[in-house]
Design goal:
The protein has 105 residues and is α+β, with helices and mostly antiparallel strands. Helix content is 25%, strand content 26%. It has a domain at 12-78.
């Protein structure tokens, strides 16, 4: 039997924010389409990630947000796909999914 995760040590609040990334960016989002999904083996678990194309409906991204007790983005910027190649080569699953979706491995 294959193990597809582990018991989360995250608080309920952090799990909620991870499922609602617009709260981490300070904007209201609308999901447009699924870009892709994949798995990656980590030390003690398998990470499964889905990545979506979204539209910002309201607000401008600002990080970090004034929310305590959760993992926060520390910075962000607009860029191009090739900006993600280094992160993808170091194991960033979200970067790998995006680059695969635009055929820019």
């Amino acid at each position: 039997m294959q193990r597809w995760g582990r018991k989360s040590k995250l608080s309920n609040q952090e799990m909620l924010y991870r499922k609602n990334p617009q709260w981490l960016l300070g904007v209201e989002l609308k999901i447009l389409k699924l870009i892709g999904e994949n798995n990656i083996n980590r030390k003690d678990y398998i990470l499964h990630m889905k990545e979506y194309e979204v539209k910002i409906l309201k607000g401008k991204p600002k990080v970090p947000q004034p929310i305590q007790g959760i993992t926060q983005y520390q910075q962000w910027r607009w860029g191009i796909g090739s900006d993600l190649k280094e992160a993808a080569s170091k194991g960033s699953l979200c970067s790998q999914i995006y680059l695969r979706s635009v055929n820019d491995k």
